[in-house]
Write a structure and sequence with these properties.
The structure is a single chain. The chain is α/β, with parallel strands linked by helices and 101 residues long. It has a single domain, classed as Transcription Regulator spoIIAA (2-Layer Sandwich), CATH 3.30.750.24. 39% of the residues lie in helices and 36% in strands. A 5-stranded mixed beta sheet has the order 1-2-3-4-5. Strand 2, helix 1 and strand 3 form a beta-alpha-beta unit. Helix 1 packs parallel to helix 2. The chain is globular, with a radius of gyration of 12 Å. It starts with a strand and ends with a strand.
Length: 101
């Protein structure tokens, strides 16, 4: 997975690209640490270019939700497409994390 992030005032904009799998766990954890360390108030994960996510990737999103709650920042997902969107819906992530279109 490729991750591009930038801080805009008190918000992080994160673009996730390609495939989100177990091998991305370390890189993703580093991102969450950075968001919390920078005292962000919110983070939007743009998933429009994410073509695949496996069960470990779904687990990483749950970790992100837990970290956001502990760190006091709001998490939302933007524009998941195709396979990724269907898996998020099947796993009821739309009930846990706001999904922006």
């Amino acid at each position: 997975m490729r991750i591009e992030s930038r801080k805009e005032n008190t918000s992080f904009r994160v673009r996730l690209q390609d495939r989100m799998t177990f091998s991305d766990h370390g890189q993703f954890r580093d991102l969450l640490t950075e968001i919390t360390r920078e005292k962000a108030q919110s983070a939007v994960f743009d998933m429009s270019e994410l073509v695949s996510i496996d069960s470990a990737g779904l687990g990483m999103l749950m970790i992100a939700l837990e970290e956001s709650r502990k760190g006091g920042w709001a998490l939302s997902l933007r524009a998941p497409q195709g396979h990724v969107r269907k898996l998020l819906e099947l796993a009821c992530f739309d009930k846990l994390i706001p999904i922006l279109h």
